[in-house]
Design a protein that fits this description.
With 609 residues, the chain is mainly beta. It folds into three domains: 265 residues, Jelly Rolls; 123 residues, Trefoil (Acidic Fibroblast Growth Factor, subunit A); 123 residues, Trefoil (Acidic Fibroblast Growth Factor, subunit A) (Trefoil), CATH 2.80.10. It has four helices and 43 strands. The strands form ten sheets. The protein has a ten-stranded antiparallel beta sheet with strand order 3-2-4-5-9-18-11-12-13-14, with helices on one face. Helix 2 packs antiparallel against helix 4.
């Protein structure tokens, strides 16, 4: 936990609601009988079980997934808080603090060690990257947990024949919990059985469940998303492909596929937060095409991609398992009831936490070229804002870097001259990766003394950004909507008490800097206010006297919410004529901040990023 306050659970729920904009579900305790226990009792044991959010066996207390830091390449395993419990997101936060991390492995919770690693090159896509480990947080059982945010180019695979997974017409089942709102129609957001090598080897060589807006075999009812079976060379909604159904578009969707490998398959779907499963198909395998009856599965496992590494789709993924044998309806219904009991909560289609868009000229967003691939040297440009686009969500770090896709906004060649273009590049601490938000709305690079700029004020999609002499024009207005940290005395950061709950009159204090904490990222608005968690840094009672404490409060435009950065590094409130101050220069965690006569000492050094 970031801080030790009571009640902890209430703080977590408030954190998610306020800081991440999530809908909070009632707390749910991890049950002793979890999905893989249910399947085993029905005679169809799990042969692969993967999740970044929780254990899928009641007795499991091992590793869930591995994260790798960008700063030093160190890897760290994230486990459960307790046997049969939820993921220890706090462990991830502590390990990744001050840098970014990718999810580099998702561990199999069975004893078969069918772990998923970052997928290699394939017949329809180059080698993948791991998901940004902190791209999206939700709640499960009242706990903050992280999901797998799949953008184009993100994907995982067990390459080879996984132990116990169906091959050559054997029966099997698979379920996953994924977003029904972060979806697309390209290929392929899959989880399940695939080729043993990343190449298309023909009809019937895959048996994976998918949720997408792919209408592969018309007609399709509505616009989806639909739960589909990817059996290679077709996304089947039922029968020979077409089976009109209204689809599943809830924030959390349980998607279920089972296949006896010889004659029959079934597709089911439901809302992972409430209710039961709907059966969308239960009948014959495809008959109008060769290769599906019987099946020819190869026993590989994929997540977020197609069998040939088609990696152009997107989605948000939470958990899933594969079983040997053809599961009973009773087992699947019990698994759905268990999933509902988790109490998954939150928005699943928008990156959250401290990341935010950078809006620029023409209302466009600062974007990375090449659709989220994020290679070194990728151009940084303007593009229409897309709330699902990972490469449009930037985090302002304490070192004044702006990061997305685990890399930094960088000036080409560390240059300083007018018209030098900007790009994405590995974070390395050079001066060309420092950006400070100015009061006039510009982003200044201190090394060059120049500002981020759209050439000649262009606003078209694809406009490549550059640096240029700071001039206050519209071409240089770039609002860092996720905000940035405010460096404070003692190397601490300006922080909101109560674990990000952010209610009116919540204390504003000093705390160790935490790059994952939304309440430490402040946006300096054009009216001089500093905003986080949807509220403003405010002087209690709009006071002006020495020692008046500051707090968080609804933004209302009063004088006690205006703050001006001074040349000496202080933050002055013009109405009172006094500066933000740490009493007697204290630097301990939890030190409540106040206003006091501006005096230029260390207790009043608060640098906006």
């Amino acid at each position: 936990m970031r801080r030790h306050r009571s009640p902890v659970l209430a703080a977590f729920l408030a954190l998610v609601a306020a800081a991440f904009g999530l809908a909070v579900a009632s707390p749910a305790q991890a049950a002793g009988t979890l999905p893989c226990d249910i399947y085993a009792s029905g005679g169809t044991p799990c042969v692969a079980a993967h999740s970044t959010t929780r254990a899928l066996f009641g007795a499991y207390s091992g590793r869930l997934y591995q994260v790798t830091r960008a700063s030093d390449g160190a890897a760290h395993d994230i486990g459960t808080l307790a046997a049969g419990g939820y993921a220890d997101a706090g462990d991830q936060d502590a390990f990744c603090n001050g840098t970014t991390c990718r999810i580099t492995r998702i561990y199999d919770q069975t004893t078969r060690h069918n772990d998923l690693s970052i997928a290699p090159d394939g017949g329809a896509g180059s080698g993948d990257r791991g998901a940004d480990a902190s791209e999206i947080a939700v709640t499960a059982g009242g706990h903050k947990v992280y999901a797998v945010w799949v953008s184009p180019g993100v994907g995982y695979r067990y390459n080879g024949v996984a132990s116990g997974v169906a091959v050559n017409g054997q029966s099997e089942g698979v379920y996953m919990v994924a977003s029904g709102t972060h979806v697309n129609s390209d290929c392929c957001f899959d989880y399940g059985n695939a080729e043993s090598t990343p190449y298309d080897t023909g009809n019937g060589h895959m048996d994976a469940v998918s949720i997408a807006t792919t209408c592969y075999f018309a007609p399709c009812q509505g616009s989806g998303p639909w739960i589909e079976a990817d059996m290679e060379n077709g996304m089947f909604q039922g029968g020979n492909g077409s089976n009109p159904n209204p689809g599943n578009n809830s924030a959390f969707v349980t998607a279920v596929l089972k296949n006896n490998g010889q004659t029959t398959y079934a597709l089911k779907g439901g809302n992972s937060q409430s209710g039961g499963l709907s059966t969308w198909w239960n009948g014959s395998l495809p008959t109008d095409k060769q290769g599906y009856k019987p099946m020819h599965q190869e026993g590989g496992i994929i997540l977020g991609i197609g069998g040939d590494n088609s990696n152009r789709n997107r989605g948000t993924w939470f958990e899933g398992a594969m079983v040997a044998g053809y599961p009973t309806d009773a087992s699947e219904n019990a698994v759905q009831a268990n999933v509902v009991g988790v109490g998954y909560g939150g928005q699943t289609n928008v990156p959250n936490g401290p990341a935010g868009t950078i809006t620029g000229p023409g209302g466009k967003c600062v974007d990375v070229a090449a659709d989220d691939t994020g290679a070194n040297g990728a151009g940084v440009q303007l593009w229409d804002c897309q709330n699902y686009a990972e490469d449009q969500h930037w985090t302002h770090f304490p070192d004044n870097s702006l990061r997305t896709l685990n890399r930094c906004l960088d000036i080409n060649g560390n240059g300083t001259a007018n018209n030098t273009q900007v790009e994405l590049y590995d974070c390395n601490g050079v001066g060309g990766q420092k950006w400070i938000q100015q009061a006039d709305g510009s982003l200044r690079n201190p090394q060059s003394g120049r500002c981020l700029d759209s050439p000649s004020g262009a606003t078209g999609n694809g406009t490549r950004l550059q640096i240029y002499d700071c001039n206050g024009s519209a071409a240089q207005k770039f609002a860092v909507n996720g905000g940035g940290v405010t460096a404070a005395p003692g190397g601490k950061c300006v922080d909101v008490a109560a674990d990000d709950s952010g209610t009116n009159q919540t204390a504003v204090q000093l705390w160790d800097c935490q790059t994952y904490a939304a309440d430490q990222h402040w946006f300096h608005q054009s009216n001089g206010s500093l905003r986080t968690l949807g509220r403003c840094l405010d002087i209690n009672g709009n006071g002006t006297a020495n020692n008046t404490q500051v707090e968080l409060y609804d933004c209302n435009g009063v004088g006690g919410q205006v703050w001006q950065q001074q040349a000496d590094g202080s933050l002055k409130n013009p109405q009172s004529g006094r500066c933000l101050d740490s009493p007697n220069g204290a630097t301990a965690n939890g030190t409540r901040l106040q206003i006091y006569d501006c005096n230029g000492n260390a207790a009043q050094k608060f640098a906006l990023s």
